[in-house]
Design goal:
The structure is a single chain. The longest helix is centred in the last third of the chain and has 17 residues. The protein contains eight helices and ten strands. It has 249 residues and is of the alpha/beta class. It has one domain: P-loop containing nucleotide triphosphate hydrolases (Rossmann fold, 3-Layer(aba) Sandwich). The two termini are 36 Å apart. 38% of the residues lie in helices and 25% in strands. The strands form two sheets. It has a six-stranded mixed sheet with strand order 6-7-8-3-9-10, with helices on both faces. The chain has a four-stranded antiparallel sheet with strand order 2-1-4-5, covered by helices on one side.
């Protein structure tokens, strides 16, 4: 089991001002899976992602990632664990505009004190695979949003993470570019990269192999793609979202 979440509860605030974001979350991912998390605003999906990402800690329960109980990590070890084990792709790219695209991608390796020759050996094949090898010497403001997201994906993958965490990765992109990015995610997953993605889009979720629906802080429902076509799976995702919404009324 690559990711195992056991009886996780997350409460914000105290007393009358308490907000329960996650109630009793149990959830796991095997190596090589591509899982999408969906749910209405306030369902707890972003809280769950933040806990998995080690940006937040659960009030109760346990999170195991790649055999490590992240709750047992000392403060000084969290950043290293995050850098070595997790890759991140955000809606707004989070690239640094004062740095070249190459330097943006290499940042995790620089922070890990890798040698220059080792970094160069890592970046060239990855950049070619993602179709950004001609963009390395440019700066983020000189390229399109879709290209910036490819730079962000390269930065997330450069450390060979156990899990790639994506938070609304196409939220700032047009439909054509979104399709290109999601096809790229599928290719990355075909190479056995584990991906966990939060999305509101049934179109994007249909690229995954499994979709988990969260409601009121618990895992409410999940579906697997199996041998369905992408359009068939997308329809089933949409039907599940409609049912989720109806039962909340």
């Amino acid at each position: 089991m690559l990711l195992d979440i056991r009886n996780v509860k997350k409460v914000y605030g105290k007393g009358a001002n308490q907000t329960v974001a996650l109630k009793d979350m149990n959830f796991s991912i095997e190596k090589g899976e591509f899982v999408a998390i969906m749910g209405e605003s306030g369902s707890g999906k972003s809280t769950l992602l933040n806990i998995i990402a080690t940006f937040d800690t659960p009030t109760e329960g346990m999170v195991m990632i790649d055999g490590q109980n992240v709750g047992m990590l000392k403060n000084k070890d969290v950043a290293k664990f995050r850098r070595d084990t997790l890759g991140f792709v955000f809606q707004d790219f989070n690239v640094l505009h004062t740095m070249s695209n190459k330097d943006n991608i290499l940042m995790p390796l620089v922070l890990s004190n890798k040698r220059p020759d080792e970094m160069n050996n890592c970046i060239l094949p990855l950049a070619q695979k993602l179709g950004i090898d001609t963009l390395l010497d440019k700066y983020p403001h000189q390229i399109s949003g879709g290209q910036q997201q490819r730079i962000a994906i390269a930065r997330a993958l450069i450390s060979n993470p156990s899990i790639l965490l994506a938070d609304e990765p196409t939220g700032a992109l047009d439909s054509k570019t979104s399709s290109e990015i999601m096809n790229l995610f599928r290719e990355i997953n075909d190479d056995e990269q584990t991906i966990l993605m939060v999305t509101h889009s049934s179109i994007d979720a249909a690229y995954a192999k499994r979709v988990v629906f969260i409601k009121d802080g618990i895992l409410y429902h999940e579906i697997y793609r199996g041998n369905e076509t992408q359009s068939e799976f997308q329809k089933r995702i949409s039907d599940s979202l409609a049912l989720l919404s109806e039962r909340g009324e």
